[in-house]
Amino acid sequence: MQQRIHHAAGATICALAILAAAACAPDSGPAEDSQDVRGVLRLGHQLGVSTWDPATSVGGSETRLLNLVHDRLVHLTPDGTLAPGLASSWRFNKDGTELTLELRPRLTFSDDTPIDADVVKANLDRARTKQGSTLKAGLSGVTGVQAVDGDTVRITLKEADTSLPALLSERFGMIVKVGSADSAYPDPVGTATSGMFRVTRNQTGVSFALKRNATFWDAASTELSGVEVTVLKDATARLNALRSGQADLTLVDPDQLEEAESLPSVKVLPTTTFNLAAVWLNSKLIPEFDDPRVRRALNLATDRRALVEGIALGYAEPASQPYPKGYYAHNEAYEFPYDPATARKLIADAGVTGLEVPFVVTSPLAKTAEALQDQWKKVGIKLDVRPLAGFGVAEQLWQRKTAPAGMAPYTGRPDPAIVFSMFHLPGQPTNPGDIVDPDITELVGASKAEQDAEKRAHIFRQIAQASVERPQGVIPLYFPQEGVVFRDSVKGIRPWLDGFPDLENVRVSR
User: Dihedral sign, CA of 180, 185, 187, 188?
Assistant: First the structure.
């Protein structure tokens, strides 16, 4: 550990300087909040925000930061249950092809501009039609949005989709103040917001500052006067920022949790979420991935338990399916064994020899990619591992679809129909090769049409079974625990299944 700290010393010194500068920077917020006695939380984040526009965001960990400024139509509780947000209630018609949402009365943005049904319609239409929108595929089943009256919105669907409320708890349901459907998101500093905070300072990729939004409909749950976020890509820099008292809350790597636990006035909360570390294959760029024997071989060549024990140090759960054991969509009867001998035979039967694969990976998962490189080499597959910083992997793998294969964390969703759609239906960002299985496609459609919870759960377990029996374009690796660490001056931190950070009812004292 001493060696890791020594090598990262330069990054840490720079990071602490940035944190100090952020703390001293002037606040451009309105004077009426100047007497607020609530504390300011200093957050060290691994990536930050690439864009404040939910319609063009790459999603992932960025979504949790966007949640702090853009409220959603539907909320999630810590255990992943749907709860009212900007919409106080919602209901489907009998055949599931219309979703009607009732908005809370007298909603406003932070500048007191009303949030009504027309605003919601404009946001949903923008997400569906804006050029470059990353939300189009997810809303492709929506045929129309109607403002029935000031507080009522009706969404019409091509066919039943009972996962839509869960989708509206993400970027799809975020409400922003913009002009026309094609208009760009304005400078976030000074732009009115619908959520807990508004942006008062922004330096992309470096830091940003948030100020409490006193007009937020649930302002009582915002117990912080503001948040100072500093981007610290290096995990050692994040831990040292916490150690020195320059950060109050951050994430660390699994091999740092033991050290973090030994620090005075620091608490550790290893948290299991919906997040999944996985490999994605683009068969349009490497035709060999079209062969189901090759895809099965790659799954059998992956020693998930070794990745969990050797890389995640046990702070993870091996994954053969998109959901962990104990979740209602998981099928415990179907898991991939580690079987390199069968993998070699399948690859030989497919006539594949000397396959070299350019393989992008997010920097935090670089060690996992190197371990996988060694595992796949044993069955004749050579990975050319290319770590990329920031959101580079998401852009190449899912947005532009220029990467033949890669490894990235996927932010899971509480409703399995959303995840199974994104992994297995054509045209989805996270199915870059459009690899499909007719039976899985039919089951996904059935899950969206079904409104009975038990029947839906049975369908999801059937999909999980099929995804193991006939692997598609995603190879689940493991469910990592998030190493949430914070100073004891921070109160109210809770584990949330949809990820870090959630600052509802969080407070800090100096």
Answer: positive
Token output for 462: 């059937």
Amino acid making up residue 86: L
SS3 call for 258: helix
Q: Strands 98-103, 87-92: parallel, antiparallel or unpaired by DSSP?
A: antiparallel
The partner residues of 508 in beta bridges, in order of sequence, read: 490
Question: Mapped to the 3 state alphabet, what secondary structure does 458-509 carry?
Answer: HHHHHHHHHHHHCCCCEEEEEEEEEEEEEECCEECCCCCCCCCCCCCCCEEC
Query: Strand, coil or helix: what is 95?
Result: coil
For residues 71-98, one letter each, b for 16 or more C-beta atoms within 10 angstroms of the residue's C-beta and e for the rest, the string is bbbbbbeeebebeebbbeebebeeebbb
d(CA 138, CA 421): 9
Under 8 Å between Cβ of 416 and 497? no
pLDDT tens digits for range 38-79? 799 999 998 889 899 999 998 878 898 999 999 999 999 888
Rounded to whole angstroms, what are the CA distances from 469 to 105, 302, 337, 405?
49, 15, 12, 21
List, in order, residues 6 or more apart from 416 with CB less than 8 Å away: 322, 323, 329, 447, 460, 463
pLDDT band at residue 37 using 50, 70 and 90 as cut-offs: low
Phi, psi of 211 (to 5 degrees): -125, 140
* DSSP secondary structure of 13-65: HHHHHHHHHHHHSPP-S-GGGTT--SEEEEEEESS--S-S-TTT---THHHHH
Give tens-digit pLDDT for 273-327: 888 999 999 999 999 999 999 999 999 999 999 999 999 989 899 999 999 988 8
Angle at which helix 416-424 crosses helix 438-449, to 10 degrees, equals 150
> Over 50: is that where the pLDDT of 6 sits?
no
The candidate with the shortest Cα–Cα distance to 460, out of 279, 322, 336, is 322
Is residue 157 pLDDT above 50, yes or no?
Answer: yes
Q: What's the CA gap between 46 and 24, in Å, rounded? A: 21
- Amino acid in the structure at residue 408: A
Sorted by sequence, the CB contacts under 8 Å of residue 312 that are 6+ apart come out as: 254, 368, 478, 480, 481
Whether 506 contacts 351, CB under 8 Å: no
Q: What are phi and psi of 431, to 5 degrees?
A: -130, 65
Count of other CB atoms within 10 angstroms of residue 40: 20
Answer positive or negative: Cα dihedral of 349, 352, 354, 356: negative
SS3 state at 290: helix
Q: Distance (Å, rounded) from C-alpha 160 to C-alpha 97?
A: 4
User: What is the arithmetic mean of pLDDT over 4-8?
Assistant: 31
Question: Tokens in use for 187?
Answer: 């400078």
- Cis bond leading into 501, ω under 30°? yes
